[in-house]
Prior knowledge:
The complex is a heterodimer. By secondary structure, chain A is of the alpha+beta class. In chain A, 39% of the residues lie in helices and 20% in strands. By secondary structure, chain B is an alpha+beta fold.
Amino acid sequence: VSGDLESDLIDLAGCSLADLRVQDDEALASSLDQLLQQVDRPRGNFGGSDPPGRAD
Amino acid sequence: VPGGKSAGSYPPCHVVLPENFDDLAAGGGGPKVLDVLASGERSRRLMLLRAMLDGAAKEANACGPLPSVETAWNMLIAVQNRAPAEFDKLLMHPQTGMWLAHSLRRLHRVTESPAVPLWVDIGYLYNIVLAVAARAGIEMLVTVPHRGGTVMIPTLGMARFGQGMACGVVQASVNSGHMCLRTAHDVVNVRLPGTADSDGWWTLRRIGSQSGENEVVVWLDDIDPYREIGEPVPPERLSHAQTRQWRHLLNGAYEILTRDNPRLASAVAMGLTSVVPLPPSPDLVRSASSGDSSGSALISMPPDPTALAVTLVHEFQHIKLGGLLHLLKLCRDDSSPRLYAPWRDDPRPLSGLLQGVYAFLGVTEFWRLHRSSCSSARQRAFAEFEFALWREQTWHALQSLHADAGLTKLGRRFAAGMATTMRRWWVEAVDQHIAAAAQLAVQDHRAGWRVRHLQTDSAYIAKLARDFSQGHTARIDDWPTPRMVPDLGVSWTHQRIALARLRLTAPDEFHRLSSRNAAHHGHHPGDVALVSGNYRIAANAYARQLAADPDQPDAWVGLALAVSAENRGGRSLLECPELMPALHRKLRSSHGRGSRADQAIPDPRAIAEWLCGISLSAFACRSTAYNGIGAMSASARKPLVAAMVAGCESPNTCRSLSIVSARNISPSLVLPVAR
């Protein structure tokens, strides 16, 4: 792996809400699909001082 | 963050610079790296906000009695235009992330919250609008939902109208430095910025600590409905005394972090913005975090600043990795629990193991540094034990992780980065007695996991039973790979590791214990004897218990540890401890089926000693099963592990290092080979 590591997440720096509101669905689709998969499969990290146990 | 993938008018994608990635992989991550993660998180939140508003617009009655989605967009745009910095603070507030995720899950029907109408969650948009206006002094009139009589104004506080009310709406206004919230029957007035509790108003408290040039300030969030993981929760207001205690603990913890690792302390100050108190748990600290609410750590009241410091480090590691995982894919996870994680009682999926390894990389480094700054010998001994324990356990898990076929190329690079950091720690000496105590804890957990979750083929157990009964030497040349059958119902007491810690931190109290009075103090006589080094007494105590009740995994493991220690070089028993109860069960069942009257029920200790005689060489490439590496072919496994351990690309430069995981031999023994 060399060079910059490219994400699939669209960079919205400098993008106002007004711009975002009218952003083409297609431009967001790929990025959004992955995000929504993450959201619909949430993962919590549960820790604790006394492992081993049920903590990551 | 410079733009990455871009085509035509499409916005560019985030990129992560290799040096930032490698810094994170090594366990670090300074201001520049955290800026990259924060920038990604901001884009993520904006995308989720757009998705939520789009989803709500398609959902009938998503806003209930509140103004429409159209109005919400207009108001959000208006407050962002007027106060962009304040809008960003609200957008990046950890609880905003959890609210977005929860609302989307409701819209997607992934979660149901039948007690609370959808519009109460969606309508929280207006609470955010109100919060921006209140923080920026923008005059505003807006309708917001109340959740059972409470209205959270994120980052500011909570208005309370009474308990047991059904959900409804509140008219809110901001004007001339005041915020007013009004129902048909009641009114709550708040003088902005609302940082003091008043009638019907709980402020969202902030606690902070300054140590040298470093300063940390976090929300102490006991009220926001979206502060926990999963479903929204009601407020659990801390008393003033509890708040003072949290302030005291944070002061102490931050002082420790600043003294031991100033770079980490400043990173924590930047990346951790919210601490959510969990209900206290006797004798332990519980903590949690979620990628949905990046920047927040949920923690139960710790007993002392050191416990808080290590917990903050643990959760901060999760926060960093969660941010990176929002940008880059490190593993292709099927979510199936199949891997051994030394900090868990149950098998873990690959993604869980990755999170755990990264968290314990931070924990190990914490203890590594802290052992040099402890003020007392006992504290130092405890820190040294924790360092030795987690160095070994994290390394073991890291090997499994790195060798797993589910890692992406980037994931493998990330694991190699962690290994590079850990490799430096193996040259650091640990007191011999403390190292031995840590090693016992390591073996204890691995054996306990195998006894509970692995099963060997019944035909093979029958063959072992015949060999045992006929007085043959134990042989496992044809030992089949055990199947994983997770047993999550049997609890672990973890008493032996607790006793090992007691011996280090309160030796007088520990030495008052003996195998005779152990039960009186709530301990197993075998555990006390084992931790004291009285292996014969321990073995006898466990064997007695097992003869009376053989369904005791803790006792089988204790017996294996004691018999192995008694028979120096008898490590083989710890490689396959699951054979003991299976063989005993088989012999018992044979005994019950018409055995001779003079044939005694098999003695657990005799079984353990018999299995102890198995040649260790027979295990070379067998006992790796279920440490993650076992899922691969031996030929695929060897170069991966070897390359990782040696930190080199070519496996030819190091020899046979896969034996590290195969035999559970400390990597410190083999690293010189790589060099």
